[in-house]
Amino acid sequence: MIKKPVLAVLGVIAVLIGAVWAGQGIGLLPGSSMTGDPTWLVIGSIALAVGVVLVILSTRGRSWRNPNGPPGQH
């Protein structure tokens, strides 16, 4: 099982990368071959959404894999 802090870090990284890619896709961040290419808007939006989901999962109170919590706490 992935630990929540690792999930949060991966989520934040995905959000940041997704935002940059989406920004380049719509032309907000000039200076690369990705600028103005709608493909990167789609890819960036997907990465951003995945990152948001990972951050949300990392902040939930209970384990998201086992609804009963860790073993031995019943």
What structural class should be given to the helix and strand makeup? mainly alpha
Low-confidence spans: none
**Count of runs of 4 or more consecutive helical residues:** 2
The biggest sheet amounts to: none
What fraction, in percent, of the residue positions are helical?
55-70%
Shape summary: rod-shaped
Write down the overall mean pLDDT. Answer: 86
Cα-to-Cα separation, first versus last residue: 19 Å
> Per DSSP, what share of the residues sits in E-state strands of 2 or more residues?
under 5%
Number of strands: 0
Radius of gyration using CA atoms only: 16 Å
Q: Helix-strand pattern, N to C?
A: HH
Task: Characterise the protein shown here.
This protein is mainly α and 74 residues long. 59% of the residues lie in helices and 0% in strands. The chain has helices spanning 4-25, 38-59. The radius of gyration is 16 Å and the shape is rod-shaped. The mean pLDDT is 86.
SSE layout:
Layout: H1 4-25, H2 38-59
Helix pairs in contact: 1-2
Concise overview:
This protein is an all-alpha fold and 74 residues long. 59% of the residues lie in helices and 0% in strands.
Features:
74 residues; mainly alpha; 2 helices
